[in-house]
Amino acid sequence: MTTLLSVTSALLMGVVLVVSPWTSLWDTNQLLQLHPLLRLVALNPFLRGAVSGLGLVNLLLAVVEVHAYLRGTAARISS
Prior knowledge:
Blueprint: H1 2-19, H2 24-27, H3 30-34, H4 36-42, H5 45-78
């Protein structure tokens, strides 16, 4: 059960981090409206790419966890 929750959270967070910097929600964030310097930094394509990169790391982590779980399950079945 713990593995399922861990994989699900990593997948969801990965998808959100990969997609959200490139949507209009990122541009129209209320916090960015109040702080112009923060808006300048947040709308930088390099920062958006870095956030998307963290999302890809989360997706990779989910895949690794599923692989490890399936390998452990197969080892228990064959024993």
